[in-house]
Every structure is written in C-alpha cells, then in structure tokens.
Amino acid sequence: TMDSLFCGYRCMDDVLQMCQEVCRVLMPGGCFLEFTHGHPETRLTYLRHPSLGWTVEHVPIVNSQGIHLYAITKNEKQTNLTGLAMDANMKRAVKGTVTLQEVRDI
Questions:
Q1: In terms of domain of life, where is this protein from (predicted)?
Q2: Is residue 51 packed enough to be buried (19+ CB in 10 Å), middle (13-18) or exposed (0-12)?
C-alpha cells in the first residue's frame, strides 16, 4: 500500500494521509502490519509522525529479499493534543500543503 503511494506525484501528502486514516480507524490497542520494500530510514519518518497516536517497531524478516515489516500499535489513550495535531495535519494533507521538509522537521 505505502509503496504504491510513494510512486505518486503527491507521495508525501498521500502517505501521511494514509497513515492518519489507518490510525483514525484502528481501535486503541489494535495492530496494523505494514509490509514494504522501504528501509527504515525512508519509512520511519512517516510512520512516526507526531500526529499519529501509535508506536512503530521495525521487525526484521530473515531471507525476505528486501521486504520490511513494521508492526504498528495504536496507543490506548490518545491525548487531545495528538488528536488536534492529527486533525490539523489531515486538513493540510488534503489540501496538498504538507511538505517533505515539514515531515523531516518533526
């Protein structure tokens, strides 16, 4: 899923929006597994964005031929600040105004 979004014109916005939507519908304590060809240095910036109320663990896969697994667990309690940040970033992502530099700065 994430790999195909990275091929698009607005990839940074689309990937952040995908993560925010997954976080929104995931139940507290729920787990989301992301399989990707992306190395941690290219994926964790997005997966650990502060607007997301979850924790991310890179799980190495032996003999995977370049496939990486990220185990993502939604936090039991989401603070109001995290929720507000998520809402604000979602609106900006929909408008296409989130930049790579903004993601890197966080």
A1: Eukaryota
A2: buried
Distance, CA of 34 to CA of 68 (rounded, Å): 8
Q: For 19-39, write each residue's pLDDT tens digit.
A: 999 999 999 999 999 999 999
- Cα–Cα distance between 21 and 63 in angstroms, integer? 31
Beta carbons within 8 Å of 56's beta carbon, 6+ residues apart: 44, 47, 48, 70, 71, 72
Indicate the pTM of the whole model: 0.69
Domains belonging to the chain, first-starting first, are 2-95 (3.40.50.150)
Tell me the residue type at 105.
D
